[in-house]
Amino acid sequence: MTALGPADAIAAASAHYLRGEPIDMSALAGELGVGRATLYRWVGSREQLLGTVLAEMTELTYRMAVREVGGGGPDRVLAVLDRFMRAVVDAVPLKAFTEREPRLFVRLATMQGPIEERAIALLTAELEDQIEAGLLSVPLPTRTLAQAMVRICDSFMYAHHLGGSRPEIETALEVIELLLRSCPAVGHGVGDQIGARWE
Question: What's this model's pTM, rounded to 2 decimal places?
Answer without folding.
Answer: 0.86
